[in-house]
Structure formats: structure tokens, C-alpha cells
Amino acid sequence: MRSNKSQKRKQARNRSSKSRKTRGGADTEKFDSFVFLSKNITTQPNADPNYEEAGLVHISESTGVNVVRSTITGIANFFGKKGVDNAIYDKLRNDTLQKLAHILTKNGDSKICNLRMEFDNPMPDLLYHHAYGTLLKRRATAAQATTKPQ
């Protein structure tokens, strides 16, 4: 009987120490934080001859980092917990990409290519995310060029 109880405790401890991802199951919130679907924002060079360069686009987002939480995560990592708490990074990156998508909706038929992104941590309690790329506009066709607005 004793071995059965200790075995159950050991199993419960193993289950509780595993992350949701390790245990399996659908976690769509996590998937959404890693994937940003867009046909108009890409890290690839422009291969579409219907678009021409219009300029550069640059955006920076910032957020505060809870120093206590970061310290506790670092201590837990030291004692064998795996991974880093990426929630702050994921949210900041997605906020930046959402702003870029908003810029595109304001500029009509345009897209961003050669997108580059970086995180910057100038102080322990401050985190920046920078994104920059090439802004492209659809080329005017011959019919559009001859038509003058009235």
C-alpha cells in the first residue's frame, strides 16, 4: 500500500512539473502567438513585378519588464526548470506586427518586404521590439496613369 501511495505522488509530481505543451493537447493561444498570417508582410524580397519600392517602414514598440518575475524565472532556470517566460516577447512582437498591418490598411494597396525584427533590452526593466522593412506600392497601370483625377 505504501508503494502505491508513493508511486501516485511521484506521478502527480511529474504531471504537475510538465508544461501543457509537453503533456499535449490543443493550445491555440500558443499557436496564435507564434504565427502571424499575412499576405502583405514578409521577410522575403519582393518578387512581384506589379509592386515598386515606395520607401522604408520602421516601427518600435516598448514594454516594461517585471524585474521580480524575471529574477524568479532566472532562479527557476538555474535549478532545472526549462525555458524562459516568452509571454512578454510574444505579446510585444505581435503588437509590433499588428501595427505594421494597420499601416498597410491605411496605405491601401501596399505591402512590406524584407522585414527584419530585433529585440533590444537597454535596461533590465525595459524591452523594445524594432521592425523595419521595405514599403512597396502597387505600380500604376497605363490606364490609371492617363486618367487624371477631377
Number of strands: 3
CATH secondary-structure class of the domain at 52-140: Alpha Beta
- Which second-level CATH architecture of the domain at 52-140 applies? 2-Layer Sandwich
Helix content: 40-55%
CATH topology (level 3) name of the domain at 52-140:
Translation Initiation Factor IF3
Report the structural category: alpha+beta
Oligomer: single chain
**Which residues sit in consecutive blocks of at least 5 with pLDDT less than 50?**
16-26
Q: Measure the end-to-end span.
A: 91 Å
Percentage beta strand: 25-35%
Q: Main sheet, how many strands, which sense, barrel?
A: 3 strands, antiparallel
For the biggest β-sheet, the strand order reads 1-3-2
Instruction: Give Rg in angstroms.
Output: 23 Å
Average pLDDT score: 76
Tell me about this structure.
- By secondary structure, this protein is of the alpha+beta class.
- The protein has a domain at 52-140: Hypothetical protein apc22750. Chain B (Translation Initiation Factor IF3).
- It contains 6 helices and 3 strands, in the order αααβααββα.
- A 3-stranded antiparallel sheet has the order 1-3-2, with helices on one face.
- A hairpin with a 2-residue loop joins strand 2 (110-123) and strand 3 (126-138).
Set out the fold topology.
Elements (H helix, E strand, L loop, with lengths): L1 H16 L2 H4 L4 H7 L16 E14 L2 H12 L8 H20 L3 E14 L2 E13 L3 H5 L4
Antiparallel strand pairs: 1-3, 2-3
